[in-house]
Amino acid sequence: MFHTQKTGRKRVVVSTEENVLASLDLRHGEIFWRHVLGPNDVIDGIDALGKYAVTLSSGGSILRAWNLPDGQMVWESSLQGPKHSKSLLLTNFKIEKDNVALVFSNGHLHAVSGIDGEVLWKKDFEAESLEVQKIIQPPGSDLVYVVGIGASSQFEVFQINARNGQLLKHESAPISGGLSGEVSLVSSETLGALDSTGSNLITISFHDGKISFQQTPISNLVEESYGPAVLVPSSVAGIFAIKVNAITIFIRVTGEGKLEVVEKITNETAVSDALSISEGQQAFALVQNAGSEIHLTVKMAHDWDVNLLKEHIRMDQPRGLVSKVFINNYVRTDRSHGFRALIVMEDHSLLLLQQGEIVWSREDGLASIIDVTTAELPVEKDGVSVAKVEHNLFEWLKGHLLKLKGTLMLASPEDIAAIQSIRLKSSEKSKMTRDHNGFRKLLIVLTSAKKLFALHTGDGRIVWSHLLQSLHKSEVCQQPIGLNLYQWQVPHHHAMDENPSVLVVGRCGPSLGAPGVLSFVDAYTGKELSSSSLVHSVAQVIPLPFTDSTEQRVHLLIDADQHAHLYPKTPEAIGIFQREFSNIYWYSVEDDNGIIKGHALKSKCTGEAVDEFCFDTRELWSIVFPSESEKIIATVTRKLNEVVHTQAKVIADHDVMYKYISRNALFVATVAPKASGEIGSVTPEESWLVAYVIDTVTGRILHRVTHHGSQGPVQAVFSENWVVYHYFNLRAHRYEMSVIEIYDQSRADNKDVLKLVLGKHNLTSPVSSYSRPEIITKSQSYFFPHSVKAIAVTSTAKGITSKQLLIGTIGDQVLALDKRFLDPRRSVNPTQAEKEEGIIPLTDSLPIIPQSYVTHALRVEGLRGIVTVPAKLESTTLFFAHGVDLFLTQLAPSRTFTQWKFPIPTSPPLHHNPSHSTPHFQLPPPSPPPPPLSSANLQELFHIAEVQLSTGSQSEQLAALQLLDRSLVPNPPSDPICPPELMRGIVSNLKNKAGVKAATKILLALCLAEGNRHVAVEAGAVGAVVEVVTELEGAAAERALAALELMCTVPEGAAEVRSHALAVPVMVSVMGRLAGRGREYAISVISVIYGGGCVRGVSGEEEEEEEEMVPAPPEEVARAVVLALQGECTARGRRKGAQLLKTLQEYGRLDLTQDGNEGF
């Protein structure tokens, strides 16, 4: 609906299939205002009503008026009725000064006032059994015609007084054979239609209430017409269109009712509705697809031979066929009529055409994403030409020319905008290469329009887009649909030479038995490498954990007949597959039948067609839920690529619980059949919800719990050994979230940490799903105040970081909830040991902290999915939410313990202890770090800081530390070496409470260079760290210990720490107090003190030491190391501790055969 009044900005109001109503600027396509209606509030029609825009939605039950300038809703009218029927909206009628909307819905015709939405009158058609086709209001008349098909194929015409709803006349006539599909309005008293066979045209006239039919065989109008015809929707006076054999035929209806073919168009054609351009004159638009061009023609309705406009527009990219076209006119300066056309393409993009050009375009297909995967960006190569990096030499030269014009102040506003765009694209976060932290990636998304997009995570721009030709509608594939995206080829060994690719799976129809379609797309360029139309269907896709020599991942496709098909179809793939043949299992869920089945491979397919890549399957087990008591409403399993850091969980009493980690675990939720409807549709006594955890290899039910008086919908997430699910409690009238954690009791003998660190345990023994598991479960339920649309969990590179639940609420925001709040071990009064472990006191409801919303004040309208992607930094994950809007940010569930602003390729990463940290609320990502200082600037900086630290006041010294922090920490220098006097000033501030935080940062940044480690040792940094580290907390303590470990990699540093009297007791104390990285560094320093031999630095270098080993440690030191290894410690810390214990045992310095440790 165009809104182009003389005053104000020109706009167009649009509605979408995602139930969005929006006002767009006609100049730039920007959104003025927007409303997203609910998923069940489908928009049936939109039109202008005076100064308002009106929408009819919810099956014709709700009529709303919206103020055009600001989008505020003016009024809402409910048009409820007992009978569902077709919804029609007519708004070109006026009673006195009131613009009236005529609405047919729910078996009634309503007249609604445009002033306040009041229903002026209502006419009931329920008793007529009428299927209404059109509401017709002749121009300048107070009459309204309601026409449709009644019982026994009777064509019914009702003549109604539009002012009061009085029925004036009712006529009916039988239609032999009935009608097919919709009817087309030719004039106020004539309709065009097709008979039930689609081979005859029927013109229906009802002049003066008399109904007459005229039937014309299509073969009389079109030679060699094969197959049924289809009526093309249009509302052009005197003309209607049909499509036969991909040919669009325009037919004029003369005054005598005769049919006359005016034009036949072989190209795909879209027709607009008629537009009134002057009194008694109407125009309409035809848009034809012709390869890479579209042809726009505007014709007069009463004179087909007159073309008001004829333009050829070259498309900027393949967008498929034109789906719809809407036109609007304006008056040029020479008083002639100009036209603009708004067209909707097959890929759901929206384009405005004017004066032979595309004025703007919108990729609204991104509002209907159905699947998401990721791809790493290319590795940055040395020696690549500038032209190749910029993709195009001309673009590179153009960019430099624009920058030159900007420097000389000769740039126009358009040039300035282009310069800003170039600068944005050349910024660090939007580079098209991988970054050190793994933040820059490509999000590959598949939309419901069968179009692929690659989105850059740095700035959200579209890198490429591709409309899949393999899923294009054709004679072979009439109803193509896209299903899923999978990573097909992910080069690791050949990352410099080969591009990754993705697999798109689709099928030719909505049924499971429809033939499948595969498409392989280059993830960097969007080029469709190959495609395949399958002879079999695709009911299930199973990515297998195997790759061939080209790093293509092996996939198993299961068809509707339960045959398995292997891809890629290569001898190498079949060889890999045969080796793992007996270890491949999968399951299938039949929601409607309430059956879950387990499957395995049997043998090669037997049949007429010999295919060595096809395999018969066998059913291993099945679980049938009684249809009278249970209905499956949700199933969820773990992510295939989820990384689990450790299988052991150390609890407060230093006991060890082993997580039941299985990729074959499936969570299933069922409800009572009566409770499968909307909330409140059943009483608590008639409803229940049952949660199952099932092993999909054996079909064994591992756990079952019943929630009486509860019902769905259920949203759930499965991670590691726990599952969290959300549902509604009818008894409490509140939503609830429950958690189930599963632990493996069969490993109870593996709780001795010495066995773990010395490798003498049975954790490497084979684990089989067929051995009956000894498991225990812990569960708990909590009230939750919101309805939930989606739940996901954060994922990181190594799985070390604590988990956060990402909960998409009914308000289209995403809440980050620490998993600790859903710990089933929470109690009302936790012990001191449990508090130290991080157990939160039990409350009946989960907290909603406003700062925990990762979307901040924004809403992801129409939220449908949440995706998390691990970055290279262990502390950070990328979070992507999609719906009508798209949202991406970085999350750090355990704070950014590894997200230093400088690269540490040879330094141990630091982090806070997640079990002792408070919940972290995500802030917007920090700004890019400053560029590194030059050597001359560094020398000047060192000199200024040295003067201030040696002679300045306390405030001046703090200012100097802050200056060094900002300058050195983002880009640690390797040259020049720090002056000794400056290093002494930094070391002295380690004992200054106000300056210790900055001093530890600076010391660690400087010690990354080996030359500075010698200077630091000479300045007394070793002794200073040993003396102050017990007073430091959190990150400051970890940084100080990391710097101390680096100083121990030089001979004088190792000697200094060995000779310090407090080094041993301080490191033992710190090792017991800290966790994670802090504990790792303390163990490493103790290894230097007692290990002897060589000292292995963080870079992996080995330096021979000539000092003799110090005397053997007291027994309590060894016990402290063992105790530390029982708690939370990194993998590197465990290796260091295990190496130390083995060395001490080898040299006879520690007796491990005491206290029940015999046998080592």
TrEMBL record:
SUPFAM superfamilies per record: Quinoprotein alcohol dehydrogenase-like
Keywords: Endoplasmic reticulum, Glycoprotein, Membrane, Signal, Transmembrane, Transmembrane helix
The protein, known as: ER membrane protein complex subunit 1
A Pfam family the protein falls into: Beta-prop_EMC1_N
Annotated membrane topology: Single-pass type I membrane protein
Organism expressing this protein natively: Corchorus olitorius
Location(s) in or outside the cell: Endoplasmic reticulum membrane
Residues of the ER membrane protein complex subunit 1 C-terminal domain: 719-897
Superkingdom of the organism of origin: Eukaryota
Subunit structure: Component of the ER membrane protein complex (EMC).
Gene Ontology BP annotations: protein folding in endoplasmic reticulum
Record has Cell membrane as a keyword: no
A single Gene Ontology CC term: EMC complex
Ranges for domain U-box: 982-1145
Keyword Iron applies: no
Sequence similarity: Belongs to the EMC1 family.
Biased composition (Pro residues): 922-933
Residues annotated as transmembrane: none
Domain EMC1 first beta-propeller: 1-364
Region of interest called Disordered, as start-end residue ranges on this chain: 908-935
InterPro entries: ARM_PUB, Beta-prop_EMC1_1st, EMC1, EMC1_C, Quinoprotein_ADH-like_sf, WD40/YVTN_repeat-like_dom_sf
